[in-house]
Recover the amino acids of this structure.
C-alpha cells in the first residue's frame, strides 16, 4: 500500500468536520437573526379613529298606516264543471253536431249527437198498443160492474158483506187498474228511452274531446266526449301556511253581511303578454296540505274564463299562472321595501345626524314590502343608502338637491357615502 492510499481517510474526515462546523455556524446565525427580529418588532397600539366627514345618505320618511299585503304564488288552472258525456241507451250514432268537436262551444240544451231511434220508436208503438188494450178491458170491466150493481140491488137482503165485493167485481177492477198502470209506465219508459237517443249539452260548455263518429256503436256508460263548463274556472293556488291568516275567505258576519273573498290578480305573461291581467276571487280553503310541497291549497274562482263576454284573455286549463292575492288589511304599521330591512329585522334610522340601528317587529313580509309594527315611528328618516361601516353613532348627512359642499352628481355622492375618512 503506498503513501497516497494511507492519506485518503485523513482528508475525508477533515471534509466531514469542516461541513459540520459550517452548518452549525449557519444555524447559529439564523437563531441570532430571529432573536433580533423579535426584539425589534413594533408593538401594536390602539388608535382612536374618528370620522373626519359624515357619510352622505339618502333617506325616506317612515309612514304609518293601514296596508293590504300582497301574497304572490303560483296556481294551476282547473275546470269548475268537468263531465264525461255517456249515453243511457244502446244504439248506433246516426247524427253528430258540427260543434261537437274538440275546441267547439255548445249551448245548454244544444244537440251533440243522436242515436238511431228506430228500435225505441217501435217500443213506443208496442207499449201504446198494450195500453190501449188495457184501457179497453177497463171499459168492459166497468160495464160488468154496473150490471153487477143492478143485480145486487135485487138480491140485497140475500148477499152478505163478505160476498158483496165479489159480486161487484172489485178484485177484477183492481187487477185491470194495475195492468193499465203498468202499461202506462211501460209507454213512459219507451218514450224516455226515445228521448235519450238525443244527447244534449247539460250546460254551456267547451268541448275538450270527442271519441265517437257517425256509425259508432255505443252502449250505456261508454265515453262519447268531455265537456268543460264555460261559466267559471278554478285556480288551485299553493299558499304557505304562515300567510293563510292574511287571506280573506268569504264569510257572513253576525249582522248577516256577506264579505267577499280576497281579490286576486292573475298574470300569465307567456300566453297573454306583459302587463295583461285578469281578476278572480278567493272562494275556499282546501282542508289538506299538498303532499309534496306541504303548502296549503286555496281555491280561486274566475268567471267568464274564456273571455266570451269581455275582452279578458282566455285561461288555459292545466297551466301554471301567477296569482297575486290581496290580503287582509294590516292596521297601524310602517311599510318599507324589503331591501331596507337589514339583518335580523333591523332598520337604519338617521337621528340627530347619526346612525341608529333599530330592532323592529316585522308582522309580515310579502314579495315587495315588510310591514313593521314596532321599532319605527312615523316621520323618522329611514336610511336607504348602503354603508361600508355600520355602527351606532356614525355621522350622517342627508343628500339634498341643493348640496354645494360637493361639486358632484348624485351618483358620485352615493359612492362617496360608502367611503370613510379616518384621521
Amino acid at each position: 500500500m503506498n503513501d497516497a492510499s494511507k492519506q485518503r481517510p485523513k482528508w475525508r474526515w477533515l471534509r466531514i468536520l469542516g461541513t459540520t462546523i459550517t452548518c452549525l455556524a449557519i444555524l447559529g446565525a439564523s437563531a441570532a437573526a430571529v432573536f433580533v427580529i423579535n426584539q425589534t418588532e413594533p408593538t401594536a397600539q390602539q388608535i382612536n379613529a374618528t370620522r373626519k366627514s359624515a357619510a352622505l345618505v339618502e333617506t325616506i320618511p317612515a309612514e304609518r298606516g293601514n296596508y293590504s299585503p300582497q301574497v304572490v304564488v303560483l296556481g294551476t288552472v282547473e275546470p269548475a264543471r268537468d263531465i264525461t258525456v255517456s249515453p243511457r241507451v244502446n244504439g248506433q250514432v246516426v247524427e253528430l253536431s258540427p260543434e261537437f268537436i274538440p275546441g267547439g262551444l255548445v249551448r245548454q240544451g244544444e244537440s251533440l249527437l243522436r242515436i238511431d231511434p228506430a228500435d225505441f220508436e217501435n217500443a213506443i208503438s208496442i207499449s201504446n198498443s198494450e195500453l190501449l188494450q188495457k184501457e179497453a178491458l177497463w171499459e168492459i170491466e166497468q160495464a160488468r160492474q154496473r150490471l153487477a150493481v143492478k143485480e145486487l140491488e135485487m138480491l140485497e137482503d140475500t148477499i152478505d158483506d163478505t160476498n158483496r165485493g165479489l159480486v161487484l167485481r172489485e178484485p177484477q177492477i183492481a187487477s185491470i187498474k194495475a195492468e193499465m198502470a203498468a202499461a202506462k209506465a211501460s209507454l213512459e219508459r219507451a218514450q224516455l228511452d226515445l228521448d235519450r237517443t238525443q244527447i244534449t249539452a247539460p250546460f254551456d260548455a267547451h268541448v275538450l274531446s270527442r271519441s265517437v263518429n257517425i256509425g259508432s256503436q255505443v252502449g250505456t256508460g261508454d265515453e262519447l266526449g268531455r265537456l268543460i263548463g264555460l261559466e267559471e274556472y278554478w285556480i288551485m293556488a299553493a299558499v304557505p301556511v304562515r300567510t293563510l291568516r292574511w287571506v280573506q275567505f268569504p264569510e257572513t258576519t253576525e249582522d248577516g253581511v256577506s264579505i267577499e273573498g280576497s281579490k286576486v290578480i292573475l298574470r300569465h305573461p307567456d300566453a297573454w303578454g306583459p302587463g295583461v291581467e285578469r281578476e278572480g276571487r278567493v272562494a275556499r280553503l282546501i282542508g289538506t296540505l299538498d303532499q309534496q310541497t306541504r303548502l296549503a291549497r286555496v281555491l280561486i274562482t274566475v268567471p267568464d274564463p274564456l273571455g266570451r263576454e269581455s275582452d279578458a284573455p282566455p285561461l288555459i286549463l292545466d297551466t301554471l299562472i301567477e296569482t297575486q292575492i290581496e290580503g287582509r288589511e294590516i292596521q297601524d304599521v310602517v311599510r318599507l321595501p324589503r331591501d331596507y330591512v337589514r339583518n335580523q329585522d333591523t332598520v337604519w334610522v338617521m337621528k340627530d345626524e347619526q346612525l341608529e340601528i333599530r330592532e323592529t317587529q316585522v308582522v309580515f313580509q310579502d314579495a315587495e314590502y315588510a310591514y313593521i309594527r314596532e321599532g319605527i315611528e312615523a316621520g323618522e328618516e329611514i336610511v336607504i343608502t348602503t354603508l361600508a361601516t355600520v355602527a351606532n353613532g356614525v355621522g350622517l348627512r342627508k343628500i339634498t338637491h341643493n348640496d354645494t359642499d360637493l361639486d358632484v352628481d348624485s351618483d358620485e355622492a352615493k359612492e362617496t357615502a360608502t367611503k370613510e375618512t379616518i384621521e
In short: The chain has a mean pLDDT of 83. Residues 3-40 form the longest helix (38 residues). The longest strand covers residues 277-289.
